[in-house]
Design brief:
By secondary structure, the protein is mainly α. The protein is built from two helices and no strands.
């Protein structure tokens, strides 16, 4: 149950990816879907 470093890395990378993609598609309406995709990706990586 001791995976804090991995959890922090996943959260940081997901946040960074989200910010970059948000800047890229800032004028579009994919924010909600993007949030869901990043959240599910983060949870999936945590479950591995």
């Amino acid at each position: 149950m001791r995976r804090p470093a991995r959890a922090v890395a996943v959260v940081v990378s997901a946040t960074t990816i989200k910010r970059i993609l948000h800047l890229v598609i800032h004028r579009r309406c994919f924010d909600f879907e993007l949030d869901l995709w990043i959240l599910s990706l983060g949870f999936f990586l945590l479950l591995i």
